[in-house]
């Protein structure tokens, strides 16, 4: 298959881990007879420095034409003095909006070598493997009005959703569950919010189309507790924007490391933007210390979700698992017994696995 991928390395370790992802994708293409072309564009601080804009027009245009977009990370202390509207982070928020990304998928899996890196008890996190499907375009973050009263004594935020917005994210939740262990937990606050009551109704309507998927509803407060007391309960969680924001950060503590968490943000036409959950890590940038695995696993999500290359995606995931199993890791995972490598050498190990797997 021929696929065109736009690469947005961004800032800090974004550049280093992007190079790792590109090399891994080249190895996958070579092994499986695919042809990937890459086009690199500026975003974030790098784009401010060169073009005076965190999201240059040509970046958006290239991303819109691509089969998928990979993003590293944006931001860093060199741009902290800039006003809010001109900061690197605006590039990230802007591209998500411009591309119409409506669903954010964050898989969280407890790698067995890292169980003791989690602040939670090993018995609790062992075997956890869940996916949070978060709505990205609606809810409290975008509802109007969002303002202070004239006298400054009151304030309002608005939680609004259209039926269509809820339907498409709920469908995404069901589709994701169908591809996994077929259990969907819909998280809401239906005891107090009208939007949550409509959300529940829509989940109930849609479940008829997915008789193979087991569904339950959970209030967000109960879900927050269950995530850290009984995480293996969950397979796929589908929820609105703010609940998803909070729960996905909470869930990330299950793994014990930011350097292993990938994410996907999808568009209705199946293209998407794939990025690691971590930021630009200015404290270690340029030192070849970054853990490339979150970015590499994000590239694997791209293979699966945008290119429907399930087998190739599994190859990459398996290669990462085997490299960890062999004890190789970057400095952030010093809790692992084994051999510490830099970003470049760890990437090389992953590629060796991909090339040698049968
Ligand atoms: P942002 O605001 O962009 O999310 P942040 O301040 O939350 O950024 P990160 O940039 O993600 O944080 O970094 C948090 C800490 O985790 C830093 O000490 C950083 O060095 C470390 N870190 C983050 N990602 C990685 C990685 N891929 N490999 C190694 N260490 C990492
Ligand atoms: Mg952060």
From TrEMBL:
Annotated catalysed reactions: (2R,3S)-3-isopropylmalate + NAD(+) = 4-methyl-2-oxopentanoate + CO2 + NADH
GO molecular function, one term: 3-isopropylmalate dehydrogenase activity
GO cellular component labels: cytosol
Any one biological process term the GO annotation gives: L-leucine biosynthetic process
Gene3D superfamilies with a match to the protein in the record: Isopropylmalate Dehydrogenase
PANTHER family per UniProt: 3-ISOPROPYLMALATE DEHYDROGENASE (PTHR42979:SF1)
HAMAP family listed in its UniProt record: LeuB_type1 (MF_01033)
UniProt name for this protein: 3-isopropylmalate dehydrogenase
Name of the encoding gene: leuB
């Amino acid at each position: 298959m021929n696929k065109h991928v736009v690469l947005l390395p961004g800032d800090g370790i974004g550049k280093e881990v992007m190079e790792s992802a590109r090399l891994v994708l080249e190895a996958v293409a070579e092994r499986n007879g695919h042809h990937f072309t890459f086009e690199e564009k500026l975003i974030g601080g790098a784009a401010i420095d060169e073009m005076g804009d965190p999201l240059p027009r040509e970046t958006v245009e290239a991303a819109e034409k691509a089969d998928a977009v990979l993003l590293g990370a944006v931001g860093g202390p060199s741009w902290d003095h800039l006003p809010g509207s001109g900061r690197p982070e605006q590039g990230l928020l802007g591209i998500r909006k411009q591309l119409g990304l409506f669903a954010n998928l964050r898989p969280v899996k407890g790698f067995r070598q890292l169980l003791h890196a989690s602040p939670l008890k090993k018995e609790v996190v062992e075997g956890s493997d869940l996916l949070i499907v978060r709505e990205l375009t609606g809810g409290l973050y975008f509802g109007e009005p969002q303002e202070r009263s004239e006298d400054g004594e009151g304030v309002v935020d608005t939680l609004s959703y259209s039926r269509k917005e809820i339907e498409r994210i709920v469908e995404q939740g069901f589709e994701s569950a169908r591809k996994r262990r077929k259990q969907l937990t819909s998280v809401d606050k239906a005891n107090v919010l009208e939007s949550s009551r409509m959300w529940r109704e829509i989940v109930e309507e849609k479940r008829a189309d997915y008789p193979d998927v087991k569904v339950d509803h959970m209030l967000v407060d109960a879900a927050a507790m269950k995530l850290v007391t009984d995480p293996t309960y969950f397979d796929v969680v589908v929820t609105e924007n703010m609940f998803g924001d909070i729960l996905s950060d909470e869930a990330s503590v299950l793994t014990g490391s930011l350097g292993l968490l990938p994410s996907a943000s999808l568009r209705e036409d199946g293209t998407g933007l794939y990025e690691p959950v971590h930021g630009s890590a200015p404290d270690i940038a340029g030192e070849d210390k970054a853990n490339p695995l979150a970015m590499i696993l994000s590239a694997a999500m791209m293979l699966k979700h945008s290119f429907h290359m399930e087998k190739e995606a599994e190859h990459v995931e398996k290669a990462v698992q085997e490299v960890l199993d062999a004890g190789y890791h970057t400095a952030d995972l010093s809790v692992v017994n084994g051999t510490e490598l830099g970003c470049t050498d760890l990437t090389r190990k992953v590629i060796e696995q991909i090339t040698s797997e049968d």
